[in-house]
Write a structure and sequence with these properties.
CATH class: Mainly Alpha
Radius of gyration: 19 Å
Low-confidence stretches: 378-393
Largest sheet: none
CATH architecture: Up-down Bundle
Number of domains: 1
Distance between the termini: 15 Å
Mean pLDDT: 83
CATH topology: Growth Hormone, Chain: A
Order of helices and strands: HHHHHHHHHHHHHHHHHH
Strand content: under 5%
Length: about 400
């Protein structure tokens, strides 16, 4: 699995930097709020604008890539991220940062959906192995993001934004150099294709499950720094542990559990375990040790879920992988965009426990949706997850 063409590693490196953006701002949420006199719900809009734009923009990724080719789409996405991150670091208002984070989300949409399809198509081995490689890049990026955010954020809250912009410039140069030109698709996809893909009940069920799961995930991610009430460096270290746990289970534990118990049983029990973790956080919100421990433990379950959900999406409907990824990402990111703001608002207006209760309820509802639609998936994932992908030559 690890013997891959240079082009695959180039895209994987860019994925690491792109996914750093998810957890990078976690350690600096409180410093931004304190420096700019903002409330938790206002600062949480950094996640909301990023996720909302990324979700909606996922609808255009397939249409763009099929017309200009995957490489140009990847490079365009990287360029937009460089601009969005750099301009966010130069902003002096929360609304300014929120707006530039939205631009960042547009760049991520162009890059992420295309990157997954590029790795799957260019990698040697099976679809499952290619996805594990992609998830390894995701996990590493998510793990390193909070650490970099904590280190640079301890100097200035602007540091992490400038850091990502610089790393993305490196990723753009590496991708432009190592990834060979990619031809346009034989058939140009349209904006309607992702919606047509969602007519398949299996794909729609997985997408709604991911939406609800992401609600709990981002409630944890965006709100927890406030009740933790620690320095940027301390929060960065806690979420670094979360990211390491996520990376380990996504690459090591998920494939083994899948091979032994099957994709859907593991997903169902894993989501239940994540909901239970959120319940513990709701009960122990006032105890920092409980919150910090649960953040890391949640990473174990999130890693398993990310890998298996992504594999399931790639085989859930008889459509092109890029279209399936765009449709799925549109549903989960658009819906999850509400979670960060709602978690902050509930924590301000009601109490600090409620965001975790709501997150746990959303994840459990996702369990119900997946259980109700599992008959549309049974047999497909098991049969196709070992489908060989095209060799890169």
């Amino acid at each position: 699995m690890w013997r891959q063409p240079k082009a695959v590693w180039a895209v994987a490196f860019a994925c690491v930097v792109a996914f750093m953006g998810i957890g990078l701002v976690d350690p600096i949420l409180k410093p931004i709020a304190e420096s700019l006199n903002a409330t938790p719900s206002e600062v949480s809009l950094l996640f909301t604008s990023y996720m909302a734009v990324m979700g909606v923009a996922m609808l255009i990724t397939g249409a763009v890539a099929s017309r200009i080719g995957a490489k140009r789409t990847l490079l365009a996405g990287l360029a937009v991220i460089i601009a969005g991150a750099g301009l966010a670091g130069m902003s002096d208002t929360v609304l300014g940062i929120v707006g530039w984070r939205a631009l960042w989300g547009l760049g991520n949409a162009l890059f992420i959906a295309t990157a997954l399809a590029t790795i799957v198509n260019a990698a040697r081995g099976s679809v499952a192995q290619a996805i594990i490689l992609y998830e390894a890049a995701l996990g590493l990026g998510i793990a390193v993001g909070p650490l970099v955010g904590g280190v640079l954020g301890s100097i200035s809250w602007r540091g992490p934004f400038f850091g990502v912009s610089t790393l993305m410039a490196v990723a753009l140069l590496v991708t432009a150099w190592l990834l060979p030109p990619t031809p346009r698709s034989a058939r140009a996809t349209t904006l309607a294709d992702p919606f047509r893909a969602l007519r398949h009940r299996g794909l729609l069920g997985v997408a709604i499950t991911a939406l609800l799961y992401n609600f709990g995930f981002f409630a944890l991610l965006a709100f927890t720094p406030f009740p933790l009430d620690m320095t940027a460096h301390q929060i960065g270290l806690i979420f670094f542990g979360w990211g390491v746990a996520l990376a380990f289970t996504s690459v090591v534990a998920a494939p083994r559990l899948q091979a032994r118990f099957g994709t859907l049983p593991v997903l169902l029990w894993n989501l239940i375990a994540l909901a239970a973790t959120l319940v513990v956080m709701a009960l122990g919100t006032d105890v920092k040790a409980v919150l910090a421990t649960c953040v890391v433990v949640a990473g174990l379950f999130i890693g398993i879920n990310n890998t298996l959900i992504t594999e399931t999406v790639m085989t859930a409907a008889p459509v092109e992988r890029g279209v399936a990824s765009a449709a799925y990402s549109f549903v989960r990111f658009s819906g999850a965009a509400l979670a960060p703001w709602l978690a902050g608002w509930l924590g301000e207006q009601v109490n600090v426990h409620l965001p975790y209760w709501v997150g746990a309820a959303a994840v459990l509802l996702g369990v119900g949706v997946l259980a109700a639609t599992r008959r549309h998936l049974t047999g497909r994932t098991a049969a196709e997850q070992h489908e060989p992908v095209r060799s890169a030559g």
